């Protein structure tokens, strides 16, 4: 969902930014005044209010497509799990816990 610009805020969202975004959504619900500006601030200045609003709209669209059965399940093959690029301990160490700011 990149806008094509060259600034760091217009690049694809990292896994860490997506987790941070999820946390921000939990902190700033739909009734929060200036929600998108607050979420952008929570993101540490890496995304603008417009970018977080568009990211949310894309997320809602994706969830709607999944719930409607329009997104096929991945085919991993029988008896095998999807490949894991890093050990579980390393992935856990990268996790970003949600905490109020």
Short synopsis of the structure:
The protein has a domain at 13-73: Homeodomain-like (Arc Repressor Mutant, subunit A, Orthogonal Bundle).
Helix proportion of residues, in percent?
40-55%
CATH architecture of the domain at 13-73: Orthogonal Bundle
Largest sheet: none
Helix-strand sequence: HHHH
Q: Low-confidence parts lasting 5 or more residues at pLDDT below 50?
A: 1-9
Global structural class: mainly alpha
* CATH topology descriptor of the domain at 13-73: Arc Repressor Mutant, subunit A
Shape: globular
The Cα radius of gyration reads 16 Å
Provide a count of the helices: 4
- What is the residue-mean pLDDT, rounded to a whole number? 81
N→C terminal distance: 26 Å
Let me know the number of strands: 0
Indicate the proportion of strand residues. under 5%
Assembly state:
single chain
Given this structure, which CATH class of the domain at 13-73 is correct?
Mainly Alpha
Looking at CATH, the homologous superfamily of the domain at 13-73 is Homeodomain-like
Overview of the molecule:
The chain is mostly helical and 101 residues long. The protein has a domain at 13-73: Orthogonal Bundle (Arc Repressor Mutant, subunit A). The chain is 47% helix and 0% strand. It contains 4 helices and no strands. Helix 2 (35-42) packs across helix 3.
């Amino acid at each position: 969902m990149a806008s094509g610009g060259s600034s760091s805020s217009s690049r694809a969202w990292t896994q860490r930014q997506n987790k941070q975004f999820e946390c921000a959504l939990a902190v700033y619900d739909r009734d929060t005044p200036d929600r998108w500006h607050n979420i952008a601030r929570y993101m540490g200045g890496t995304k603008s209010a417009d970018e977080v609003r568009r990211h949310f709209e894309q997320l809602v669209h994706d969830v709607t497509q999944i719930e409607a059965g329009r997104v096929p399940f991945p085919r991993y093959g029988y008896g095998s799990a999807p490949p894991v690029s890093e050990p579980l301990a390393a992935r856990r160490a990268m996790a970003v816990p949600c905490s109020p700011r």
